Amino acid sequence: MNVGLAADIGSLQRLPKIVGNDAMARELALTGRRFDAAEAKEMGLIGRVIDGGRNKVIGERAKMDEPDAKRRRWRWGRSLRRRVQSR
Question: Which positions of the chain have pLDDT values less than 70?
């Protein structure tokens, strides 16, 4: 998967904090070097790596669309709205 980083809205300012290394952030921003998912996870850019490629990712997403998951997301959103409104 190819994902780019736009150099606006503070993304380059936040990158060193996310990666945890100023030199690595500069290298990525200035060279546009490609890296794999394992390295992205190691740097903290992604939360997890799913083995199996694109079809596996789509399958994981389909699991999130099951009725139970939809219900949990709806309840979470509703409780979040209530907390925001009560402020």
Answer: 1-3, 54, 61-62, 64-67, 69-70, 73-74, 86-87
Domain boundaries, the chain: 1-49, 50-87
In sequence order, what are the residues at sequence separation of 6 or more whose Cβ sits closer than 8 angstroms to the Cβ of residue 30?
Answer: none
Instruction: Give the DSSP per-residue string, 31-50.
Output: H-----HHHHHHHTS-S---
Q: What phi, psi does 69 have (nearest 5°)?
A: -65, -40
What CA–CA distances, in Å, run from 86 to 22, 52, 78? 40, 44, 12
